[in-house]
Amino acid sequence: MSQCDVAIVGAGAAGLSLAWRLLSPPAGVPAPSVVLVDAPPGSLRPPERTWCYWEDGPGEYDDLVTATWDHLRVRAADGPATTRSLGRFRYKMLRSPLFEEGLRPRLTALTRVEAVVERIEDRHDGAALVCRTSGGAPMSVRARWVFDSRPPAPAPARTALLQHFGGWFVRTQGPVFQPDVVELMDFRTPQPRHGLSFGYVLPTSPREALVEYTEFGPSVLTEQAYEAALRQYTQDVLRLGPHDVLAREQGVIPLTDARHAPRAGRHVFRIGAAGGAIRPSTGYAFSAIQRQTRAVAAAVHHHRTPVPPAAYTARHLAMDAILLRGLATGRVPGASFFSRLFRTVPAERLLRFLDGETHPAEDVLIGLRTPILPILRTAAGLPFLARAPR
Q1: I need a surface site. Which of 81, 85, 242, 363 has the fewest CB within 10 A?
Q2: At what angle do helices 314-329 and 372-381 cross, to 10 degrees?
Q3: What is the mean pLDDT of residues 49-78?
Q4: Tell me, what's the pLDDT at 192?
Q5: Which domain of life is it from (predicted)?
Q6: 3-state secondary structure of 335
Q7: Per-range mean pLDDT, top range of 41-55, 187-201, 295-309
Q8: Cα–chain-centroid distance for residue 39?
Q9: At what angle do helices 314-329 and 360-367 cross, to 10 degrees?
Q10: Which of 165, 174, 156, 173 shows the shortest CA–CA distance to 200?
């Protein structure tokens, strides 16, 4: 049986970020002993992925990012484009393999094991992970505190959509991309009957980019359907010309107004997506994960009970719940809603809103740029909806 101060389950963005912060204490503060339990290679280990986020100036992971941009563009379904400077912000792209490789030198004191966690036992003096290795051998880890970053089980919700996508890393024969502008939402894609769809282009050079087809909707597509949508978008919309597909990625992010309790026991906590770090209206999570793990590490270093803080305010979550319901019912047409928002709201304010950092007066100003009657009608009906299993 292994014994430690902190055990972390899962080696994604949340698990690795927390491990690094725990092992980098302030001067004069001893680092806790940390064990990271990651699933063996296979279906339980998440695939490689791309995280995007924005920051005001330099950040902690700037030496690991693939690219940064200072402009965003949103294209309406009928073609008009809105290109906005991000002002003091920078939009950043981080690939999970580079993130893990870059953090490795900072995690030399980490004990890392490969095993499947079968259950977590909360005890009076700590918690125990009951695990099984890839070879089938049982093992256990005892810890003062346990942080579980595994994807959460579906929780009861009034509205539950999925942000699902397929992406190609492409290289074109000629220079077709604008390297300083992210195509954040390009609505020149066929819109589904329920929800919305858009293209997403992250250029890393004039000839290379990650191109994604994304939908907000009730269910995912087949791999063949994502490929067909990407062919249509790259050929008929972007008109890339001859190009090579260097790599592919596919993923799904839950967009739901379910409640996420950060505490799973006296000594067991949830972080990352399991702890409510995903912004329900957009799917962004990386910045919230950094805020969450920073606060948890500080609590551990100063011998406080390390309850992960709420990722977003109740006010912002209520606004997200209204938007999700509006999109799910079709009362709020997604393509025109987001196009208008980016056209009429200053980019810095909108990014701070998406990070949950705007003040109530700013939220009112943003709300005035939305379709007010459908939003009010949706808000009026929400209290009468039951939270059902999804």
Answers
A1: 242
A2: 100
A3: 95
A4: 87
A5: Bacteria
A6: helix
A7: 295-309
A8: 20
A9: 20
A10: 165
CA 251 to chain centre: 11
Name the amino acid, one letter, at 9: V
Tokens in use for 16? 């690795």
For the entire predicted model, the pTM comes to: 0.94
pLDDT bucket at 1, cuts 50 / 70 / 90: low
Structure token pair of residue 118: 């079968």
Listed in sequence order, the DSSP H helices in the chain are: 13-22, 96-103, 223-232, 286-301, 314-329, 334-344, 347-354, 360-367, 372-381
* Structure tokens, 98: 């580079």
Question: What number of residues does the chain have?
Answer: 390
CA–CA distance, 289 with 20 (Å, rounded to integer): 13
Place of tokens 């280990």: 45
Distance CA 74, CA 339 (A): 6
Query: How far is it, in rounded angstroms, from Cα 306 to Cα 171?
Result: 45
Integer CA distances (angstroms), 191 to 195, 322, 327, in order: 8, 21, 12
The tokens describing 85, both together, are 């400077």
DSSP state at residue 51: E
Give the per-residue pLDDT at 2: 83
**What's 388's DSSP letter?**
B
- What would the two tokens of residue 106 be? 């900072």
- pLDDT (tens digit, 9 = 90+) per residue, 270-303? 999 999 999 999 999 999 999 999 999 999 999 9
Pairwise CA distance, residues 256 & 390, whole Å: 10
Give the distance, in angstroms, between the CA of residue 239 and the centroid of all CA atoms in the same chain.
29
Q: What distance in Å separates the CA atoms of residue 104 and residue 38, rounded to the nearest whole number?
A: 14
Q: CA Rg, the chain, in Å?
A: 22
Find, among 294, 288, 290, the residue nearest to 276 by Cα: 288
Q: Nearest-CA neighbor of 281 among 310, 260, 305, 312?
A: 312
